[in-house]
UniProtKB/TrEMBL annotation:
InterPro entries: Leu-bd, Leu_Ile_Val-bd, Peripla_BP_I. It comes from Reyranella soli. CDD domains: PBP1_ABC_ligand_binding-like (cd06343). This is Branched-chain amino acid-binding protein. PANTHER family: BLR6548 PROTEIN. Residues 29-371 form the Leucine-binding protein domain. Keywords: Amino-acid transport, Signal, Transport. One of its GO terms (biological process) is amino acid transport. Belongs to the leucine-binding protein family. Residues 1-20 form the signal peptide.
Length: 387
């Protein structure tokens, strides 16, 4: 009889809320998955944000966890490859049985995985991918703390106008990545009732921008909105200086490190008028993020704090807040409801508060602007709020 009662007790215990029936949740742990590139050049958008997530989880766990549960991070490598991303997400959901996911580095890979994530109805916070197709139309369980490409495009134009530019031109790539930014940028012009004075195209593998620079210079553009990868953007800036063309050049988060970009351009002074978007309000050298610099260096010896770590730190803090608000009787539905209730939630890194509502899961609408003057450190210039 005692054995029977004992077995019944164990069976009932296994069904208690927040335990075995909720994937990834036990009495002691909450398993959170992450996917992104851990290898190859895309590791900047995968491995480094994941390192940021992990130091936040370490801090939370050292303080006792969330309602007594420690956070466990499970990483999967998608190599920035769409097929690999689908496989990584399926493994996290069905084999690793994670409770929720913070992930998404390279946009094309994350877009490919969106359907799988949405169908599983697993809570997801996108940490770095910017493609609008990830969050538009709204998927009930997919949130983003990354800026999206349409928000960045609107911010680029607004920034140029705020700086007093009157003759604004565009130079862009027209591949899938470029069009995801170019199309909403042209729509932003239309909403403002203005047109670019010139609309130039440049190939991702271009090695010369002389023709484009000469046409832009001839159009007397006082600002150029640069929708290019770092390599062609560096060639454009180099050739612009060579030909004496010095407009305000406005970039986006694809060029998130002005110091590295200055080195890539390789021509002293060529980036003096270059300004670019940042998802975070601090540079890695800022004393305000000393705590996180020390945590990264201690956890990952040989690494230095980067803006990509900060992407992970911010998204992890949003996840932690959602888990806290969801309460001890944890379910995926309660976490989704908690995330939908975030309003102006302040993190250690994002330029403005994080706000998520059921009709709009683009939760970060406050791009910061950064610049690096020759011989000086990177500095934050201000924030543009996009409505």
């Amino acid at each position: 009889m005692k054995a029977g009662l004992s077995g019944l007790f164990l069976a009932v215990a296994a069904l208690q809320p927040g335990q075995a029936q909720v994937p990834g949740v036990t009495a002691d742990t909450i398993k959170i998955g992450s996917f992104g590139a851990l290898t190859g050049p895309g590791y900047l958008y995968g491995k480094l944000p994941m390192n940021g997530i992990e130091v936040v989880f370490d801090q939370v766990n050292a303080a006792g966890g969330i309602n007594g549960r420690k956070l466990e991070l499970v990483r999967e490598d998608d190599r920035c490859d769409p097929a690999a991303a689908i496989g990584a997400v399926k493994k996290l959901i069905h084999e690793d049985k994670v409770f929720a996911i913070i992930g998404g580095g390279c946009s094309n890979a994350t877009v490919a995985a969106r359907e799988t994530l949405a169908e599983a109805r697993i809570p997801v916070i996108i940490m770095a991918s910017v493609h609008d197709g990830i969050t538009t139309p709204v998927a009930p369980t997919i949130f983003s703390t990354a800026l999206t490409s349409s928000l960045e495009s609107a911010a680029m134009l607004q920034f140029a106008l705020d700086q007093g530019a009157k003759r604004i031109a565009v130079i862009s790539m027209r591949d899938a990545w470029g069009r995801s930014r170019y199309t909403p940028l042209i729509e932003a012009f239309q909403k403002k009732g203005i047109k670019p004075v010139l609309d130039e195209e440049m190939a991702p593998d271009a090695n010369d921008a002389t023709a484009q620079v000469l046409r832009l210079k001839g159009a007397n553009a006082d600002a150029v909105l640069v929708v290019l990868y770092p390599k062609p953007a560096a060639i454009f800036m180099r050739d612009a200086q060579k030909l004496g063309f010095k407009p305000l050049a406005v970039g986006q988060s694809g060029i998130a490190d002005p110091a590295a970009f200055e080195d890539q351009v390789g021509s002293p002074g060529a980036t003096a008028s270059f300004r670019t978007i940042s998802m975070v309000r601090y540079t890695p050298e800022d004393p305000a993020v000393d705590k996180w610099r020390k945590a990264i260096e201690a956890k990952f010896p040989g690494d230095r704090l980067s803006v990509f770590n900060l992407f992970g730190i911010g998204s992890a803090q949003v996840m932690v807040e959602g888990l806290k608000r969801a309460g001890p009787d944890l379910t995926r539905e309660k976490l989704v409801a908690a995330l939908n209730g975030l309003k102006d939630f302040e993190t250690d890194v994002y330029p403005g508060g994080i706000t998520c509502v059921e009709t709009d899961h683009r939760c970060n609408k406050n791009p910061a602007w950064i610049a690096k003057e020759p011989g000086k450190p990177v500095r934050v210039l201000g924030v543009t709020k996009v409505e």
